[in-house]
Amino acid sequence: MRLIISLFLLFQLIQLIQSMQVKQALNVFSRPLQLCCNNPKTGFFRDGFCNTNALDAGRHLVCVKVTNDFLKFSKQRGNDLITPIPEYNFPGLKHGDCWCLCVLRWKEAFEAGKAPYINLEATHIKTLEYVKLEDLMKYDISKLPQFQQSINIMNDSL
């Protein structure tokens, strides 16, 4: 009997999680959310996208390219993003990695002048509930020449 109840509860939990997942998430421009990163695999669901649902208490919404300066800042604030944590499927980050960052961590770094650049096309629209678009635009990675080069190289290889 316990097995049947356990299986029933597991099935209900799976249905609840699936119902909370966003089918077609949008970015801050109200267009389809783009892939943030597959290496390392990022996002609350570890699917490469900065998708969210009600279970994502941290709101992993902002697709960033981390810098050493930001990583040091985050560690000083009690959020060590450098050290791997395998049990959470977290590889640890290094300078240049892309990652779906918690929106309030990005906002805190922004206010301290330590915010990393953002891939706005891969940043979830719910970010706008916490940060103004004009502030996000100041850190738009697509305006950096190195980013444009990497996009051209990626497109050439497709």
Automatic annotation (TrEMBL):
Pfam families: DUF2237. Coiled coil: none annotated. Transmembrane segments: none annotated. Keywords: Signal. Residues 1-19 form the signal peptide. InterPro entries: DUF2237. The keyword Membrane does not apply. This is DUF2237 family protein.
